[in-house]
Amino acid sequence: MECRVLSIQSHVVRGYVGNKSATFPLQVLGFEVDSINSVQFSNHTGYAHWKGQVLTAEELQVLYEGIKLNQVNRYDYILTGYSRDNSFLEMVVDIILELKKTNPSLVICTVMVEKGASQLLTGRKIKTEEDAFEVMELLHKMGPGTVVLTSTDLPSKQGGKFLVALGSQKTVKPDGSKTSQKICMDIPKVDAVFVGTGDLFAAMLLAWTHHHPTDLKAACEKTVSVMHHVIKRTINYANDVAGPGKKPSPAQLELRMVQSKADIENPAIAVAVRVLDSVIIISN
C-alpha cells in the first residue's frame, strides 16, 4: 500500500538540510514525499554567505489550500522541521489538525533541533539516565508514542568517544494489549560539525518505525546505522578533499547522500541497541 509523507521543512539549493536531507532517503525506501519548503536558501547558514527567501504562514496556507482543493490532502505521516516564527508553526498545527480529520491515524514526526528542547518542553533537567526516561514519560503524556533523545550529556559506559542516545516507545496492539520498550545506544563521536543530520535521523526513524512499528530496537539500529555509514563516508571524503592537516570546509562536509544510497536501503548494523526494559500488558 502506498505510504505518503507531507514534509514541511527548510530547503537549500546546494547541500543537504531539511527537505533535501529527508526526501531522497524516504523515496529510496519507497515513500511518496510531498515537500513544502519553510525557507529556500542558497545553502545552509554554516557557510560564510547565504541568500534566500522565507515562506510566511499565509503562503503556507495558500499552498495547502491548493492541495486541499484538488482533494489530494490525505497523508500517512507529517514530517516537520525548521521554522522561523510562531505564526508559521501555528499554521502547521492547523494543517495537522485538519489532516487528522481525514486520517485519524496520521503520524506526526518532529525534528527538535535544540539540544535542550525536551527539557524546555517538560521543565525537567536531565542529569541522569533516570531523569531522561522521566522526561520521555512526560513527553509520552503529551501525545507522542515514540520519543528518542539523540544527544544527551550523559556519560557512556564505553568512554568519552561515544554519545549516549535513549529511546522510549509505547504502543497499543489491535487486540488491546499494550507494549513499552526502553532502549539505549552508544554512538561513536566524529570530530566535525555536520548539518542536516538531525533531519536525516528523523526521516530514517519515520521510515524504520513504519517497517518496525512495535520494535524500537530494530528501528533505531537501522536508523543509527544509516547515520553511521553516511557520516563515515562524508568525513572520509571531506578529509581526503581538504588534504592532510587541514580542516574541511562546510562545502566539503555536506552529507554524501547519493553516494550512500545502498546503505540507506539496506544498512549493515554498525551500532548495537540495548533494550533496557520491555513490558507487555494484556488487556482483559
Automatic annotation (TrEMBL):
GO molecular-function term, one example from the UniProt record: ATP binding
Broad EC category: transferase
Single GO BP term: pyridoxal 5'-phosphate salvage
Organism listed in the record: Takifugu rubripes
EC id: 2.7.1.35
InterPro entries: PyrdxlKinase, Ribokinase-like
Keywords, comma-separated and alphabetical: ATP-binding, Kinase, Nucleotide-binding, Transferase
Superkingdom as given in the UniProt entry: Eukaryota
Recorded GO CC terms: cytosol
Protein name (record): pyridoxal kinase
Family listed: Belongs to the pyridoxine kinase family.
